[in-house]
TrEMBL record:
Pfam families: MiaE (PF06175). It comes from the Bacteria. This is tRNA-(Ms[2]io[6]A)-hydroxylase. It comes from Flavobacterium plantiphilum.
Length: 193
């Protein structure tokens, strides 16, 4: 369904399990950034009522996920660390086209957002199916379902608002680009690392 060409090696979960505090801290910050991204899109496109309404729900859900992960960190007696740099997201950002109409720029930002959600969804699936901790397995299964919904929302709005962009063709380019960079990741105990 996600269209990703390369699946995460399930052995990545072994790396994650070696430092649960790190994955949870990184995950919390990913959720905070996802909420901020939705709010930023609202700010830049406030005249698009349907988009604003959908993104408000996503922002609320992402901030609730942030709280859930933060609560999990506290419940386990772990330390919520400082924000992490996300090299994967930064590489995706470089691929965004910066020209075209305002709606074309929105379309690119929505595709960028959809790609992040797609990979996060896939990573949560791998965690839910392979992590030994039953609480975390259920936690990541529930979040996987949510991320899939965000992915389809972003992709759907990209199709709705594209002026001069063949979204299916451009999404294929995003998939191909993501495939070319994802081989550099899956080696660290971070959501995208």
């Amino acid at each position: 369904m996600l269209g990703l060409k390369l699946a995460t090696d399930p052995r990545w979960v072994n790396i994650v399990e070696s430092n649960i505090e790190e994955i949870l801290t990184d995950h919390a910050w990913c959720e905070q950034k996802a909420a901020s991204n939705a709010i930023s899109l609202i700010t830049q496109n406030s005249e698009k009522e349907e988009l604003v309404t959908a993104l408000m729900l996503i922002a609320q859900e992402e901030i609730e996920h942030f709280k859930m992960v933060h609560d999990l960190i506290k419940e386990r007696g772990l330390t919520f660390g400082r924000e992490r740099k996300d090299s994967y997201v930064n590489e995706l950002f470089k691929f965004m086209k910066k020209d075209g109409s305002r709606n074309d720029a929105l379309c690119e930002r929505l595709l960028f957002s959809a790609m992040i959600e797609a990979r996060s969804c896939e990573r949560f699936k791998v965690l839910s199916e392979n992590i030994q901790d039953p609480e975390l397995a259920k936690f990541y299964r529930d979040l996987m379902i949510s991320e899939a919904g965000h992915y389809t929302t972003f992709l759907g709005f990209a199709k709705k608002y594209a002026d001069h962009v063949n979204v299916d063709k451009r999404w294929k380019e995003w998939i191909d680009y993501e495939t070319s960079i994802i081989t550099n990741y899956g080696k660290n105990e971070t959501v995208h690392g």
